[in-house]
Amino acid sequence: MTIENDYRWRDGFPKIGIRPTIDGRRRGVRESLEEQTMNLAKAVAELLSSELKYPNGEPIECVIADTCIGGAAEAAAAAKKFKNAEVGLTITVTPCWCYGTETMDADPSRPKAVWGFNGTGRPGAVYLAAVLSAHAQKGLPAFGIYGEDVQDEGDTRIPDDVQEKLLRFARSGLAAAYMRGQSYLSMGSVSMGIAGSIVDDSFFQEYLGMRNEYVDMSEFTRRLAEGIYDPEEYTKALAWVKENCAEGPDNNPDHLQNSRERKDLEWETVVKMTLITRDLMIGNPRLAELGFEEEAQGHSAIASGFQGQRQWTDHSPNGDFLETLLNSSFDWNGKRAPYVVATENDSLNGVGMLFGHLLTNTAQIFADVRTYWSPASVERVTGYKLEGKAENGILHLINSGSAALDGTGEQEKDGKPAMKPFWEITDEEVDRTLRATEWRPANLEYFRGGGYSTDYLTRGGMPMTMFRLNLVKGLGPVLQIAEGYSVDLPAEVHDTLDKRTDPTWPTTWFVPNLTGQGAFTGVYEVMNQWGANHGVISYGHIGADLITLASVLRIPVNMHNVSAEEVFRPRAWGMFGTSDPESADFRACQNFGPLYK
Question: Would the annotation count 344 as a binding residue?
């Protein structure tokens, strides 16, 4: 049994239920529609299974109802089948009129969408309107999918605009369904008074359907002292680290620098901490063989956070190495899905990382939204005039070293820098990523216990999305999103600006796309409106998917620069206003309330 395959994914994944609904009238009506309706369901299942993958790289699974659904009895039979098959979301498809409340999916906590075929032979669009009305009236919001162009009767082709909405809903619904029943593991408590690391169990329970697990950081001390990790894997891991993780220059003053013996001990400790963190999250059957049956179970954690500062890092090596490597798409065991580990136990940024990872299957960058550099400031300090995408200013995204190594941009798509799912990454790209990274002895003024911080520079030209989940008293969770690009600066300009913060940490120079409206009138305004000190950076422009996921979970979005044409929310959101969708989003989320409350 391998921990990365059989054991890590032992609980499986949610499936998508496909519900072919039909006009229940017999004696010619239903019979004439059976084949077309079921073929539509099969076409949707084929599309989703061919285009989407689970985090382990396997194609997603669809479950089609045994019969077309013409009334309440068949709806109940489909619901029973879906429950037994662990279906986490449903898509209802039909080319015709059906009986709305009799055929609808009435599960209150399962994300749901309805595709009403745009054809003139039978009124699929009439059913779509009727059943979406029923969903709204019963407080069970559903996504409505209706193609722009009329199709001929019997056509089972899925138009491009319908495909886009089916895939967007499926990605978001799967993300929501997979989080349900999983855990967030808090390793330690609140770091340096950072509000995001005050883990709000009500938020996790009511909005995400997740449980919260907690261990004190003394559990690391215990496992280190008692050897509660796989010694064979540790030997393998340390050898890999010595071969592949280049130690960079020590920037500490001579009188503060640790001895070579101490630095080697720190390497050994941070490697063990990485193993321990992974085992705390998902468990490890090898521990049971070593006599640690309880520890072998893990905490069923899909995401976690490491407090570190300051109680741990004032005495022991910091968590930068464990966070960086676990967040990356590979380690000494080869390429694998990233683990989600938040720096400073910022659980809200950890949830954002989880959102991004589940929507894209890629690694996520955790960073401080550290500095807005105006064109005038850059020119004053360096003599360089920003140009191209950076001409209106840049954001310096940098943290003490927890950013996933994938963030170097040494992976490529079509010859351009990228971040990819682990199954698309080549061995050469892994090697390039490692060569582009140095592991710098930690700044001992910040981290008295030592350790190693990641040092790399993200390549420019990558489409990226920066986002952040915030909690507001009286309002609840809100999400903010900024699509944009990583940018390159001349080496001497980067070096000058970087040294003003900490040159031992990883840097991403980011520019949001400006729209001239709201928070996106300027780069400064994006920084000025950012809700916390941290943000998540995901490869690609995934803002539309984040908006859809947020609406599934009833989390409003307070700022974004996604085009209106790409925004896809449940049809009932329009009942709260159409001229100001942002305000309507807040009202709809407040009205329907958390998904699992």
Answer: yes
